[in-house]
Design goal:
By secondary structure, the chain is an alpha+beta fold. It has three helices and three strands, in the order βααββα. 52% of the residues lie in helices and 17% in strands. The relative contact order is 0.18. The longest helix is centred in the C-terminal third of the chain and has 16 residues. The chain has a three-stranded antiparallel beta sheet with strand order 1-3-2. The protein is globular.
Length: 64
Amino acid sequence: MSDEILTIREMAELLKINEKTAYKLASAGKIPGFKVGGSWRFERHEIANWIRRKVEEQQRGEHG
């Protein structure tokens, strides 16, 4: 169960991006996440769904 919820560091590693970039995307609401006591958390399946949507958008030629 512990790996179902990701920290910002874990999410950044999953997406292969810098933690600062991950924080900016989360703060802007571009990546699905939530705050617990001031710290960002992400549900693994929500990140997987987000990735899938982004891939589909790009395949259709959309930008976002």
